[in-house]
Every structure is written in structure tokens, then in C-alpha cells.
Amino acid sequence: MRKLSTIKQGKIKEILREILNIPTVLPPNSQALKGYDRTFRTRVGKLRLIYHINHDKKEVYVLGLDTRGEVYKIIRRLLD
């Protein structure tokens, strides 16, 4: 995340705070990932933020943050 502009960093931190505060309501530009339980993506400009919500522990795990093509390659390696 250090390589991102401070504006993008702030936007991503804001999205993560929203998810932590109200994990049952997805932020704008978010969708569930097909085939993965409680795993979602949020579009932040050209970037994709991929995360998993554990409602039992009230935790959010960030699985990846990268451009569209790259982040899905990472996620497939992690989750498949």
C-alpha cells in the first residue's frame, strides 16, 4: 500500500473502516466473489481490494490489493 498515492491510501483505509464498523453492509462498488464464501471485492479506481469477512470473530482479512488482472491471479493461488 505504500506505493499508492496518499489519496488512494486514505480511500482504502476509509473502505476498511466501513467494513469493520458495519460488516453486513457492503461499501459502494462491492460484489461478492462467486465460488468463495464471505469473500468480496471492492473497486477503488483501477485497483481491486479483495477481502474475507469472518462474522463470528468480527474480523476482516485483506487478501489482495492490485490491478484487476493481477489481484485475481493472487486470489486464485491463495484460495484454490
Automatic annotation (TrEMBL):
Annotated protein name in UniProt: Plasmid stabilization protein
Gene3D superfamilies cross-referenced by the UniProt entry: RelE-like (3.30.2310.20)
InterPro entries for the chain: RelE/ParE_toxin_dom_sf, TA_system_RelE_toxin
